[in-house]
Design goal:
- The complex is a heterodimer of chains A (about 300) and B (about 350).
- Chain A has about 300 residues and is an all-alpha fold.
- Chain A is built from twelve helices and two strands, in the order ααααββαααααααα.
- A two-stranded antiparallel ribbon of chain A has the order 1-2.
- Chain B has about 350 residues and is mainly alpha-helical.
- In chain B, the strands form three sheets. In chain B, strands 1-2 form a two-stranded antiparallel ribbon.
- Chain B is globular.
- The chains are: A mainly alpha (about 300), B mainly alpha (about 350).
- Chains A and B meet through helix 4, helix 9 and helix 11 of A and helix 5, helix 6, helix 11, helix 13 and helix 16 of B.
Amino acid sequence: MDGVFNALYQFQVSFSLLLLSAIGLAVIFGMMGVINLAHGEFMMLGAYITTIAGTNGAPLALAMLLGALGVGLFGAVMEIVVVRRLYGRLLDTVAATWAVGLILSQGTLILTGPSMQGISSPFGSFSVGATSYSWYRVALGLVSVALLIGLYLLFMKTKYGLRARATIQNPSIARALGVDTPRMYTITFALGSALAGLAGGLFAPTATIVPFFGVNYIVEAFVTVIVGGANALVGTPIAAALLGAVNAALGTEFGLYIGRVGLLLTTIVIIRVLPDGISGLIDRWRMRPTDSRSGR
Amino acid sequence: MRRGAALLRAENVAFVVFLAFMLVYPLTTDEFSILNTAYFMAITLMALSLAMIWGKAGILSFGQTAFFGIGGYLYGIYTLNVLGAGATWVGILVGVLAGALTAAVLGYFMFYGGVNDVFVGLTTLALTLVLQTFMAQTAGPEWTVGEARLNGYNGMYTPQISVGDIPLFGRPLYFLYLGILVGVYLLLRWLAGTRWGYGLLALQENRPRTETFGYNVRLMQVQVFALAGGVAALSGVLYASWGSYIDPSSMGLTAAITPVIYVAIGGRRSLTAAMISSMVLLKLSQSLASEAPQYALVIFGVLALLAVLFVPEGFVVAIFNALDRWIFRRPSAGERVAPSEVAADARRAG
């Protein structure tokens, strides 16, 4: 019984880690085809804002919200100043966002020094059998699920969501029908950035706050987006669940490093079979009767 | 006569000037600067490998430092186990082959799986980071290959390239490294000018169309990826031998970004520009590092960002083009190459 609970607990920890790390990156990628290589630094920025707000007396939830808002704003500015100029030049976008990431992490190092006083993890712990577990990690799992439901409602039930989906499906026709696609891109980039900031804030109490905070999560974020593919609502959670299972199983058995190596190897094998990730598989399956759309 | 005139381009003139300078330089300076410049040349090989795949084949890899690390470590493991001066030369080959083989295997999974563009970047970056975290935890004595202790972040001490029983140092080492750098540069330039090289250029612009012309696009991608992996591994071998030391930070995130920045600033489409830019920026980085190491990376980040935004062909290539127009009175290289932006736009729309 204890073993089963432990396995479940480890799985949901891995799942929420992968999902939260990846969701912001996936939202941006799904909409724009752009991979934001400053993603890790956006998470770092979120963690810093949350920590600074938290240590100055803001309630933790408010501090995290501030982190998300701050990074979202930064993302909007970056979309307008950098990303927009590079539409149609995907590889250049990758190089440019990476340069931004480098500037952010090194700039933070210069401004705040090598580390910062963190905030402690709330809610305490509980035990099942002889093992002690953190309530906060359980909360992170619940937050991941809530976030997914929120994103589902946002994309399926709001005007923004409708326009966003139209833009994803066919930007030219969406524009012809009066959707301000450049604005959709800015909003979506801001949304993805805010999600990265929120993830950074959520992880802040569980990690040391250093300028290279983001590096600890980007492998997880990348592999989840690669396996998940372009559909952030369907592909990303399934990928997080799949890879979470691999990571939890290997991590508990052989330790953190082997867990990470396992993530990478699983991903490399999966891309051989599913180059468009799980989203591509689902698309193909849905399009089965009338495969009119050409494959990417 | 026409062929001679065609060779008279800013890029080629720059290479000749560069080579002449590098040949004369060790005669004018002290032992320390000579060794230091040998280090620049070792790292510059990695920039060349990136310029080859990114500039000539349109594959943006962040995994060059991973192959660099594999080359360095494999060289160390081999030379620590097989002792003797001859072994260090075989060790170079072992390191290079290990890097090329790893790249070929990864390339097979990526390119035959149909993975391209940004996903190649993500996968290669993930490889780099995973290798680093893996090597970082090898501090314990159980991580030993024969006589070679991997030693985690304490780093692995490797033998130096030797002739007889004497490790190469000073000018002989410098000229060995210069010979290798120039040799690899000429090899890559020659390859880029072959039928195969033009095929790469074609697949960079439009993969399906290149395929319909009868090129085996995936195979060519794997080949160029393996070639670049081998060159990056050679870079790692020369680095490990130069300092008789290698550690996991040589394949960390900061290490992975530097070749990309050097190549982006110089100009990815020109091997010459990438080589010169890398040498100059390494020198600049070192001068800055003694004053304020963090500022160097911020400055380079800003430079790379400005290059991508405003001078997409790269600063050095822009200078080449300007010289071509004003002095040599011929169309610049950029104008003779099909604009990849158009192709990329077409892909996006389609």
